[in-house]
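Protein modeling request. Please complete all fields; requests missing the sequence field cannot be processed.
Requester role: graduate student
Desired output: 3D structure, token encoding
Chains: 1
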Amino acid sequence: MGKSSSVDLRDRIVGEIERGSSRRAAARRFGVSAATAVRLAQRKAQTGSVAPACQGRPRGSGMLDRHADVLIGWVEANGDITMPELAARLFAERGVKAHPASLSRLLLRHGFTVKKNTAGERSRSR
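Delivered output (126 residues):
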């Protein structure tokens, strides 16, 4: 994703437009595209602020979050389950196809870690 312009620059561009300058002239003066100046003026008119909107999807709205309780239950019942095995079980029982890395990120987000004991065997814990 692209990086948003600073709020200071956004304020100066909108301030220039509010003082009577055209949007294109304000864009030229501050070295941004005309489309940026137009969008900033529209954002100021609609929301009253020129601050950038949040980027990305909010946490907890992904496909796997609906199945988190079931996945956590499976991991707690069998701490040695691998991510590919967990993905296969999720697909077999729920019909949801997920990459093992996505499952790993979900479990990490819920506090699970993978530790090896002295025998070199893995076990999951919270």
